[in-house]
């Protein structure tokens, strides 16, 4: 079997480094390009401390797509870059696997059309941690029976988008199962703006940002005389890598853009 050729955008970032390390450790994956914001020409393997990989860092995704001829782009950059990167990859027939959060629903619809026109697959996973995907799916099941729900997501203070992609995806899955209901007292009023968090489909999402955190989420359900809390914690970025690996393998079999790792898992 030919290895899957992969270019990583954001290769020197917290997630990108882990992705490069993961690719280097898999026989059926081959790194063909590493893109970072600044062009250094240095070997990405030397930069991240795994030894030479023979792949120089470039600041041009176009160059990495043309020279490396990858099958897959893994994008782990920033909300401001991800759409352009996906457009470039799709136009070149390269399948995007995207962890970068912050794309709007309209943007995802447009990118899905582009993938279909090109006859290729793409995967956007707001959270690659398998445990987090399970938490989201379990939350949707619980919401059917316990419609009073609030989401609290907690991330490190370098995160640019709020609420997190995970919280938005959890809310989407919950809304599909939950009967329509406005959570909280009908006459509640905020005396401090934002105190009740963001409002979506009748329930609330709260975002916490603190140094020391990585990626954490609680989904709280309440009913008369009972509480159910679903919680997931990512302690480090290695926690996301089994999901990245799965997404790269699955994207080769798909057509169109898939939003959420649960759609390629046997759940
Ligand atoms: N889906 C998931 O499971 C998951 C997990 C963690 C992080 N994330 C998301 O992944 C993204 C990256 O997270 P991080 O913690 O690694 O961030 P980071 O800031 O450590 O890394 C981002 C990298 O992107 C690079 N970059 C920025 N602009 C670029 C450009 N134009 N071209 C090439 N590279 C560019 C930066 O130089 C940096 O190295 C964020 O959007 C974050 O929310 C998703
Ligand atoms: O570090 C981040 O940023 C993360 N973002 C994802 C999100 O927005 O849900 C989840 C994992 C970490």
UniProtKB/TrEMBL annotation:
Residues 4-128 form the Dihydrodipicolinate reductase N-terminal domain. CDD domains: DHDPR_N (cd02274). This is 4-hydroxy-tetrahydrodipicolinate reductase. InterPro entries: DapB_C (IPR022663), DapB_N (IPR000846), DapB_N_CS (IPR022664), DHDPR_bac (IPR023940), NAD(P)-bd_dom_sf (IPR036291). Residues 176-189 have a biased composition (Basic and acidic residues). One of its GO terms (cellular component) is cytosol. Its main location: cytoplasm. Pfam families: DapB_C, DapB_N.
